[in-house]
Design brief:
By secondary structure, the protein is of the alpha/beta class. The protein is built from nine helices and 15 strands.
């Protein structure tokens, strides 16, 4: 497989017809077709280690608007920009604090997004304030696409707004059948979105818990502040993943401390159960998904399990609340928003 970047001024011949929803392997031809689409100011879905992203040229307002249109994403919800190198990240920032260098050195490529002051030449992909969220993904396909295109790629999750994030190419196509091309890199290994840390505040502030645990971040930054209030939908925010309802199945979803306390009389049937190893055995449920009792492994299969229950026709999903410990913070965040 060739990793040679396509020169920025190269003209990629439009000799291949790309039908909407085409899923292709990430070989040299698949990457060539993806670069062609991105350079035409359209979008491509691609795998990262967290979830599949819907990528577009971060410098193109037309391409960015296509992300919002396909996802039916509200305009106040900003995007994360993916780059291939720390140098490319610095080029998008008006200020690059020393803490950013230490965090990048420790965790990039990887599931950490940093919010910094935005460079004035980047106008289409940032938040409504003067910030930009940036990360280097750890998936080899994502990195090859970034290198081949020579573009920073704004890329939220490749699914309809508020619905379950995709962790396979098939999830992408079912949610966004009109996406021009999907690079199939197999199932995502982390299965949950990146951790987002705001470096524009006096103390680094956690905006979205995610795949990278707080304990690891504190080893580099020391104290990390937590937001003291939820961000109201419709208002500006520096990061995605802060909406009240997000990551939600089609089925009515309830998060319960004790599944035996649920009043099932008004719930759409069939009722499905999502629980984990070591939790009390579910007292009912026509469909039951039992995930790992390890928070890292649970997170890796969470969205896939919700997709399976939705696809099986669950009318309602009752979820056993996981432990209230910091190790489960990202999982609990996703479940609370899914059940909002």
């Amino acid at each position: 497989m060739s990793n040679r970047a396509v020169p920025p001024d190269a003209v990629v011949p439009p000799d291949a017809v790309v039908l909407p929803g085409a899923v292709v392997p990430p070989d040299a031809e698949g990457l060539r077709r993806a670069v062609q689409i991105l350079r035409a100011d359209s979008v491509v879905a691609f795998p990262t280690e967290t979830v599949y992203g819907l990528g577009a040229n971060a410098f193109s307002k037309q391409a960015i608007s296509e992300i919002y249109r396909l996802k039916n994403r509200p305009s106040w919800n900003p995007l994360i920009v993916h780059v291939a190198t720390v140098e490319a990240a610095r080029d998008l920032a008006a200020e690059w604090p020393e803490t950013a260098d230490r965090l990048a050195g420790a965790f990039w490529p990887g599931p950490l997004t940093l919010v910094v002051r935005r460079a004035p030449h980047l106008t289409g992909a940032g938040a409504d304030n003067d910030t930009i969220a940036i990360r280097i993904p750890a998936h080899p396909v994502a990195l090859r696409l970034l290198e081949a295109s020579g573009l920073p790629l704004a890329a939220p999750s490749a699914n309809r707004s508020e619905s379950i994030s995709p962790t396979t190419a098939e999830h992408v196509v079912r949610s966004l059948p009109d996406v021009p091309l999907v690079l199939d890199g197999g199932p995502c290994s982390w299965g949950i979105e990146s951790t987002v840390l705001d470096l524009t505040t006096p103390v680094p502030t956690l905006l979205r818990p995610g795949a990278l645990p707080l304990r690891a971040l504190r080893d580099v930054t020391g104290t990390i502040a937590l937001r003291d209030a939820e961000t109201v939908d419709g208002t500006a925010r520096p990061s995605p993943g802060m909406s009240r309802r997000h990551y939600a199945p089609r089925a009515k979803t309830l998060l319960l401390r004790d599944l035996s306390d649920a009043d099932r009389s008004g719930l759409p049937a069939p009722a499905a159960i999502l629980t984990y190893e070591g939790a009390p055995s579910p007292p009912y449920g026509e469909m039951v998904e039992v995930l790992s009792g390890d928070p890292r492994e649970y997170a890796a299969d969470l969205y896939a399990a919700l997709h399976r229950l939705d696809d099986a026709g669950a009318g309602s999903i009752l979820i056993q609340e996981p432990p209230r410990s910091e190790d489960w913070l990202a999982v609990r965040d996703r479940l609370f928003r899914a059940a909002a």
